[in-house]
Amino acid sequence: MGNLRTALLAWLFARSTGRDFLLRIEDLDRVVPGAQARQLADLAAIGLDWEPPLVRQSERGARYAAAVADLDTYECFCTRREILTAPSAPHTPDGAYPGTCRNLTPAERAERRATRPAALRLRATESAFAVHDVLYGEYTGLVDDLVIRRNDGTWAYNLAVVVDDAAQGVDQVVRGDDLLSSAPRQAYLATLLGHRPPLYAHVPMVLGPSGARLAKRDGAVTLAERGGPGVVLPELAASLGLLGDTPRDMLDAFEPAALPREPWRLPGLT
Ligand SMILES: [Zn+2]
After folding, report:
1. How far does residue 70's CA lie from ligand 1's centre (Å)?
2. What are phi and psi of 97, to 5 degrees?
3. Which of 27-31, 42-46, 109-113, 179-183 has the lowest mean pLDDT?
4. What is the pLDDT of residue 96?
5. Which domains does the chain have, with CATH numbers?
6. How far is the CA of 100 from the centre of ligand 1 (A)?
7. Peptide linkage before 247 cis (omega within 30 of 0)
8. C-alpha 145 – ligand 1 centre gap (Å)
9. Cα 231 to chain center, whole Å?
10. Cα of 55 to ligand 1 centre, how many Å?
11. pLDDT tens-digit profile of 116-147?
């Protein structure tokens, strides 16, 4: 229900402004077998349509590698624990990578390579960056030496979305507001790669009965479990202050400024 509501919003933002609606399979991480097909079927079942091609991140490694060649990066050998316990440089903001591996000598790097595979980090020259969000306005957030490629060789999500958005001509990004704090890093990275950052719309999340982000364990949370499109679409519409049995019905009254700013607690769960 959380994904469907955000997808419906993304579709409404796109279609109400004459944009294409693009879909991308973000499968750099572990993939649940069958999940992609079910998610696409659910989107189609609630009446969302999208323009081809359907892009899969798992097939785009060459593009990510080409982008990284244009960036100033360095190898990082830190474990998660080392990052949490490392002393920070005096001007490093809270939550930022402390810079442990930023200035290793070639000899120090060679020594560490023998014990641990390296992740790749961006050598950032800013500590904050501002983005424009339709719902949040001007939002400034932390930028640090973010991971570009993990030490298992997986491309970082922050890099992949920036490269893909630029390649697909994405100029508007609509997604859950749990990702708002990532937007400044991504917009900064886009700028470094010579791309104009997109306009963002970070929309409120759907919550479960405990007030935490909606999860499978909360019960009837999928399209099928809640009774299908005939039940779910009016429910989603009402949660957005809209009316209609199809996404097209909701387009006329759709107005970003009128959207609820609070998370939506999914009803009917205990
Ligand atoms: Zn490090």
Report:
1. 21
2. -60, 130
3. 27-31
4. 87
5. 1-57+229-270 (3.40.50.620), 60-203 (3.40.50.620)
6. 5
7. no
8. 10
9. 28
10. 32
11. 999 999 999 999 999 999 999 999 999 999 99
